[in-house]
What does this fold into?
Amino acid sequence: MVETSDIRVVRCGGSKVNLTPPIISSDSRYPFVLCTSGDLVKVYSTRTEEWLHSLQGHTNQVTGITLNPANHLQVYSCSVDGTVKLWDFIDGILIKTFVIGCPLFAIYVLSVIVLSECFQLVSVHLPKSAEQEVEAKEMSAVSSHISKNPSCTAFGRGGEYIAFARHLQLNVYFFRKQKTYSFSLKATDKKGAKNAFTCIACHPTDDCIATGHEDGKIRLWRNFIHKKEYTYSTQHWHHNAVNTLCFTPEGTHLLSGGIESVLVQWQYGAGNRKEFLPRLGGSILHISASSDGQLFCTSHSDNKITVIESSFKVCGVIQGLVKDAVLTDLMIDPRSKALVLNGKPGHLQFYSLLRDKHLYNLDIVQQEYIYEAGLDQFEVVKAAFDIKGSWLATVEERGKKSSDLEFFLKLWAFDERTQSFVLNTTITAAHTDRIISMCFSSSEETTMLVTAAEDSQFKAWCQGADADTQQDQNFWSCDFVGSYHKLNPTNCSFSADSSLLAVSFQEVITIWSPDTWEMLTTLCQPPGVIRDLCFGRLSCSKYLLGTTTKNLLCCWNLLTCELEWSTSVDVSKLQPDPFSENVAAFSYQSKHTDLFVFKPSEPRPLFTNKNVCSEKVHRAVFVPREEPLNSCDESTQWLNRSQLYFLTQNMDLLTFSTATEEDRMLSSSKQLVIDDSVAVTPFYLLLGKHRQQQQKLNTQSHPVSDKPQQTQGSVTIKELLHTPAHVLPAASVLCSMFVNSFLISNTGVQQDPLRYFVHIRLKSNGFSYSVMHLLSISLKFLNSFI
Amino acid sequence: MGEFKVHRVRFFDYMPSGIRALAFNRDIERIAVARMDGSVEVFHCSDRFFQEKIIPGREQCGIEGLSWVGERLFSAGLNGGITEYDLTNQKVKYTIDAYGGPIWTIAGNQQGTHLAVGCEDGTVKLFEVNEDKIQFERNLDRQKSRIISLSWHPSGSKIAAGMMDMIQIFNVETGHSVHRLLADRGVGTSRSKECVVWSVVYLSDGTIISGDSVGMVKLWDDQTGTLIKSHNVTKCDVLALSVSQNEDSLVAGTSEGTVVQFQFISMVLGKDDKEWVRTRTFKNHTHDIRAVAEITTAVVSGGMDAQLVVRPLLDKVEVRSAASALRKIHFPHRRLVSCARKSGLMLFQYPGHLELWRLGESEGKGSSLFVKRNPEKLLHLKVKGEDHIRCSAVSPCGEWIVYSTASKLRENTLHGLKHFLFLFFQISKLPMVLSSANQLCFSSDSSHLFSASAQSSVHIASLSQSGCKFVGTLKPKSGSHQAIHLLAASEDGKWLASANSDHEVHIYNLQTRKAHCTVPVYSSAVTAMGIHPTTNCLFMMYADQQMCEYSIEQKQYTDWSRTVQRKGLHRFWMERDTPCLNVMFNPQNPSHVILHDTYMLCIIDQSLPLPDDKTQFYNQLTLKSLPEEQRKSHSHAFKVCKTFKDILCVELMSDQSLVVVERPLEDVASQLPAPIKQKKFAT
It folds into this structure.
C-alpha cells in the first residue's frame, strides 16, 4: 500500500569504531588514523583528533582494513558486501573495487582474506587491471579451521608463514613448504589454567609467535618447525583473557591489552621487564602500531580509539558513541540537538549525530567506577530534559538484583556561563520504591517534574517551593503526591501544552490538571496493563494514545473522553514526533520488527515498513533536521522535519534515509571534494566574495574567453584549499605557484604590480607567512587590482 | 574385603632434611643427592628413581658439593675435608683434609683425572684422582675472597671460578688467572651488598654462564671477558645452574622455588645464529632450590623443602609413560618404623635418636573409635657419638631393640640394659670383620637377629636372656658384593631372604645355614618383600610396580605370579609413582597380601581374577552400589584404600589390627623455615 523502496534502513552515525584494529598511516609528519565505522572507513587526524573525511562506498559493514604493502598511501578495505576496495585515503578517492562475491570478515596483507560462513582462510589473487571494478575469482583456500576471531590469525616474518589458532590448537602454515605444524595445549590443568587461545602476534624479524590465552597468560613460541622440540616461555600479568597482542615494528617490544584497560609493554627477550599504561577506559580490544613505531593505537570496548606515543603518553582520544548498556531512553538535548544516553559508566553522553561526534560526558553518579565484574555500582537509569533544555532530571540506582535498592533523583540546571549542566538538587528518597517513569511539563513558564514510582504514588516536583532555603538558588521540592486506588503507576505523560497530565495506573489512565491537581477523568480500556502513553501534538492534541501489554493500541479522544479507535498490534515502542502530529510505533511480531507511522486523527498509517530489523526495538527518538527536506512524497513526508533513530537489542543504532536525502548527500559529497569541505572561516568568506565577484566579472566582461583560464586557476586554489594544511608543501613554494595561477591568463599591465608587491612582502617577512595569510594578502590585492 | 582396626599414628615427627647438592652420572644413570644432615643418597634414574643407596651423615658435617669421577663419588664440605664414598658397602671410604678452610664447591673434570675444590681462603686446589685415593697436586692463583663455585671447561684446560662480585678464569696449566669478569651488584639498597656468584657453568664454545645473588643469569665470553647478555630471572638469588649434555638447554634454580629453563635456539628458523632464550618456568618448590641437574630427559631439582622433584622434559621423552611423569620424592624408600607385632610397640628411627612408643587402646565400634588409653612414649634413645643411625629394628616380642650407625668405630653396637620391661645390652663379641650392618631383622620368634653386612653376607646372632651370641654367617654362593637393603625372615623360622642393590634376591635355609637358591634377577630393584607364613612363598614388589611370587620350596615362580606376568597389571597400578614399601600377609585369610606405598593401602586377593585394562580399577564405590549377587562378578583382585595419605609405614599386628603411620606433608611444610616472602597477586 505504501511505497517503501525509497526509504531504507541505514547505519548512520554512532557506529562502532572499535570493530577492527585501527591503522596508523606511515611516513607523514602528521599521521592519520583509519578505522572502520559501519559502512564507512573514517580518517582521523592523530594530532587534532578531528574526523577529516570518510571513505564511502561499501554497502555493508566494513570488516577489515589494511595498508597496501606496495603503496603506503593506499589502503585496502573489505566488507560483508563481498568486495575489497582500494582507496587513496589521503584524498578519499576510491581507486579500485575487487568483487569477491561472498561476505568477507577480515583482510590481511598479501591478499589473503578470511571468508565467511564456515570461516575459511582464503588467499585471493588480485588481478592487475586498469578497470575500476574487477572481479577477483582466483582464490585458493589456505585453511578452513580458523577462528572466528580475526585476531587469532597472524602473519609471520615477511609473510613466510601464517599462524592461526582455534580453541586449544595453534597451527603454523609455511607457504613455501606448504606444511602445517600444529601444537595443542590442555584445556585446563591442576592450577586452574584456561589455555584457550585468544589472540596471536608474530615477531617481525625473529621466528617467534606470541599467543594470548584466556587466563591472561602470554606464551612466546619458538622452534615451531619441530613436532616435539618446540618450546615456549610463559609470562603472566593479565588477570583475565588477553584480548590483543602486537609487536612493535622493530620487534623490541610486545604490547598486550585486556579487560584491565592497562596497556602492557613487554620487553622482548628480557623476561618479565614490562611497562604499564593504566586507566585507559574500557577494556582494550585491539592494538596497532605505526610502521615507524612512534605511535600506538588502542581501541577500547567503549567505542574509543586512543592514540599513544611510543613514550607511553596518551596523545589523542577518538571517542565514538558508547552503546554498551543503554538504560535510559534516547533523548535529544533541546539546546545542542545532541543525542543523550548512557555513556561511560555513571555518565550521560552527549553525541552529535549530525557531525557524528562525541561532544562530552556528564558525570551523573560522581563516584569512582571500579572495573570489575560482579560489583553492584550506581548506574543512570532514567533521564529527562525539559522543553528548553535548561533542566535535566536523572535517576541513578543500584541494587537491581538485591532487595536493598538505593536510588537518587538528581536535578541539573544548565549553566550558561560554563555551558554545561550543574547539579542543583539531589533528592535521596524521592519515593519509597523504584521510579518507573519521569517527565517534565512542556509549558514554557513553569517547569514541573512528575515522577511515578512503584510505591503506587506519583509526585510532582516544583522549583523554589521550599521556603526554608534562604539562598538565591531555587531548589526543587515536592509539590503534590497523587495516587489512585493504591495501584502502581506505569507511565506518566504531559500534554503538549502542559494543561493535562496523564498517569496510567495499571489498566486505568487518570487525567489530572496540573494547576489544581484535580483528577479530571479516568479512561479505562479493560484488557492489559498500560505500557506506553503519549499525547498527540499540534492538530491532534485532543488525542491520547496508549499501548497495553495485551497488544492493543488505543486512541482516546480527550474532548469526548471516549475511545476513538483501537487496533490490535503489539507495540514495543511508541514514539511521538515533537515537530509534527506523527507517531511512530514499533511492533514486534514473529521475530521481526515492523514500523508504523501514523497520525492519531487518521486511521490509515502514513508509512509502514515491514521487517525493519530482526530484534525488538525499545528505544527510538526523532532527531530534528538542521534543514528540513521538502519532499512531497506522502510516504517520505514524515521524515521532512526530523529523522527517526532507533536502537535495537543488539545496540545497533539505525535510522531511515530517503532517496532524496541520499541523492542530496551524494551530490554534496561529490561537491565536497571540490567545494564545501572548507569550514566557514573569514578567509572562506573572502574567497567566496571574490569568487562571486569573479563570476560576475566573468559573466560581465569575458564570458567565453576567460573560462578555461578560470578553471585552471580554480584548480590550483582547490588543490591548495582541499589538501589538509599539514600535508601541504612549504608556504614559499605554494605562494608563487598560487599567485602564478592568477597571472597566466592576461598579459596586461595589471599583474606586474601584484607580483612585485607580493615579492616585496615575502622578502620583508622572511618567508614566514602562513599560506592563509599569503593567500588573503594576494587576494586582497588581486581584488583591488582587478 | 575384611575389616581391620586401624591405629592411625601421626606422632612420628620425621623431618626429611633439605637437599644441598645434586650430581648426575650420565654413564651409570645415577643421581647422587647430598642433604643438609650430611647424608648422601643415590637414586637410579632409569628405574623410576628408586633410592638405591643411603649413606647416613654425621653431626656437624655439612656437605657443600658432590662430584662424580667415573663411578666414584666425592663430596666436600664446610669441615674442610674431601670425602670419597664406598658405594658398594654404602659407607664413607676416607676423608682427607684440603687445608684450605671450609670448602664451598667441588668439581671434577670430564676426563676424570682431576678434582678441583674451592676453599674459604681463596684458593682453588687441584687434586689428582688416583686408583684408590686422591692426591693434592697444586693450588691455582690465590684470590682475595672465597671461591663459591667452580666449573671446568669440557677440555679440562680452563676453570671458571665464581667468587664475591666476580668470576675468575684460570688456565689450569699455568695456574694463573686469565680473565676477571666483574658481576654487577644490585641496584638501590642492595648496592652495598656483595654480589655472590652462586654458580658458574663453562660451555665448550667458551661461553661462561653465571647465576648470582642479584637474580641475574649472565652470559660471558671467555675470549674477550665481556658480558654478552644478562637475563633477570628473579628478584632474589639464582642459586644453581645446570646445563644439558649437548649444551642446548640450561636450567637455573632460584630461591623463589622456581626453575627457569633457557634454551639455545636459532632466532630465525633454519639459520645457525643461535641465542640463549628464556623459555619455561617450573614451580614445584616452596623454598630455595639449592641444586638442579638437567639429566637426559628431565630436570631434577632439590632444595630447602627437602623434596626431590623430577620434572620431565616432554620434548626429550620418546614415549610418554608413567616412568616419565612428574615425580616428587618426599620420603626415603626405606622403612623408618619397625613394629613389635606381638606386643604393640613401635620404634621410630630419627637420624640421631630412636623413640619407642606403645600403641594406644580404644573401645567402642564404628568408623572412629574412642581412645581409651593414649599412646605412650616409652623410650628416647640418643645415639652415642656423632654418627647417624643407618638402620634399626625392634624384635616381635618387644624385648629387643637393635640399631646400627654408619661409623667404623661404632658400627654394630647393640645396646642392652635392663630397664623396665626391656633388655638392653651390648654385643661386644662380634668380630670386627663382620661389623657394619646395612639392614637388621629379627626372626619371628625373637630368638635370632639377622644383620646384613658387607659382601652381601648376613650374620646371625642368637638372643637369649643371658646375652647375644654370634652364631654364623650366611654368604651367597656367587654374585655381587653390593650391600643388602632388605631382609625377610619366614614365620616358621626356616627361611631368610635378602635383596641387594644389584637386584639379586638370595634365599637361605636357616636350618642348614646354607644358601638355598637365588631368585632370577629382574631388571628393577626390589622395594619390598615378605615370605608367606603358610605357603612359604616369597612375595616381591619391584620399583617398576611389578610383583612376583616365588615359591621357595619349589624354587620357581608360582602359578599366580606367572598369570600376573602373562596378563599384565592394570594401567592405574603401573602409573603409581611411589614404590611399595611393605608386604604383609593376613594369617586369617591366606590368599590376602597387603601392600602399601606413600599414597595408598592395597589388599590383593589372589583368589579373585586379575583386572585387565578395560575394567574399572578403583571399583569399591561401584561395588557398594551393586546388589550382593552381582558384586562377585564385578570384583577383581585389587582392593585399594586411599583413606590414608603420606604413609610412612603400615604393619599388621598379631591382634589383626593395622598400624598406619602417616606423616602429613602439611606438617612437614609447617616445620620448614619461612620461605622468601613474595608478593602474590591480589594480596
User: Anything to note?
Assistant: The two ends of chain A are 61 Å apart (CA to CA). DSSP finds six helices and 57 strands in chain A. Confidence is low (pLDDT under 50) at residues 670-678, 701-712, 747-779 of chain A.
